[in-house]
Write a structure and sequence with these properties.
The chain has about 300 residues and is of the alpha+beta class. Among the domains are: about 100 residues, RlpA-like domain (Barwin-like endoglucanases); about 80 residues, Expansin, cellulose-binding-like domain (Immunoglobulin-like, Sandwich), CATH 2.60.40. It has 6 helices and 15 strands.
Length: about 300
């Protein structure tokens, strides 16, 4: 009995130890799980926070680039707008007005249609010739434009309506450049034109003037410069109603714009287009195409075309 009791006691102890050993790993696992939960929770919050931030920021950058791309687009459309987005959004009206003026004469230089300029008038003995290299003529209602407004021959051939302080007026054609002593706005008229405005004894008078587009003009003419050939040529337009903005010649590659000199010829340095079709554009953007003009140096060759009146 005593041995049986000892055996039973030993068995009971063994059961208790076994239970303890079984329960201890479970407790440790629970401990590890308890420690892992916050870590797992933190990791869960971290992607969640990142995802939440991404959800917040993802829509946010999406509109911002859209607005940013719209603002530069507006700025590019209006070249003179302020860099500030708020300012540029408020200033389309000014560029729009400016664009309307440009639209009326998109290729104009300093002298623009519809603008009145102030200056003085003097006079000299003119014969219709001068820096623009037009031939002297019997039409002496001409003028020499000051160097600033002459603008490297862009004013050549332009008609301007000149008005004196007492209201008398005369339309003259610009055929010459008045050198440095003439101030911006000043026109050195032919003696005959000046006499239409005031007594020559006055010598100098205040004037206003603006671009004109007269009705009583014939068709324009083309002239090749002396020395022109198929290897080099200079081309001049004569008798145009409105100021000429550009001249192009047709070559194998299409239309080619020629550079303009301050003596009022358009030059093809390598002869490209010399003797071919010529396209002339005025400051209003009207294009006239002339064909059949041979390279005949220093010969005025008439055409059948003229720019529209404005």
């Amino acid at each position: 009995m005593h041995r049986r009791w000892l055996f039973l006691a030993a068995a009971a102890v063994l059961v208790v130890v076994s239970l303890t050993l079984v329960l201890l790993p479970d407790h440790k696992d629970d401990g590890r799980h308890a420690e892992a939960t916050p870590v797992a929770g933190t990791r869960a919050k971290s992607p969640s926070a990142t995802g939440s931030t991404g959800a917040t920021r993802s829509p946010s950058p999406s509109p911002r680039p859209t607005r940013a791309s719209a603002k530069p687009s507006t700025t590019r459309t209006s070249p003179k707008t302020s860099p500030s987005a708020a300012t540029s959004s408020k200033k389309p009206s000014a560029p729009a007005t400016s664009q309307k003026v440009s639209g009326a004469a998109p290729l104009a230089g300093r002298i623009r249609p519809g603008v009145t300029y102030r200056g003085t008038a003097t006079f000299y003995d003119a014969d219709g010739g001068g820096a623009c290299l037009y031939d002297p003529s019997g039409d002496v209602m001409t003028g020499a434009m000051n160097s600033t407004d002459y603008e490297s021959s862009k004013a050549c051939g332009a008609y301007v309506l000149v008005r004196g302080a007492d209201g008398a007026s005369i339309t003259v054609r610009i055929t010459n450049e008045c050198p440095g002593e003439c101030a911006p706005g000043q026109i050195d008229l032919s003696a005959e034109a000046f006499a239409k405005l005031a007594a020559p004894s006055r010598g100098q008078i205040p004037i206003t003037w603006k671009l004109a587009s007269p009705s009583s003009v014939g068709t324009l003419s083309i002239r090749y410069k002396t020395g022109s050939s198929r290897y080099w040529c200079g081309i001049q337009v004569i008798g145009h109603r409105n100021p000429v903005a550009r001249l192009e010649v047709r070559t194998g590659g299409g239309w080619r714009q020629l550079a303009r000199t301050d003596y009022n010829y358009f030059i093809s340095e390598d002869g490209g287009g010399c003797g071919g079709a010529i396209r002339v554009t005025d400051i209003f953007g009207e294009r006239l195409t002339v064909d059949g003009i041979a390279v005949r140096p220093n010969v005025v060759q008439p055409t059948q075309v003229q720019f529209a009146q404005h």
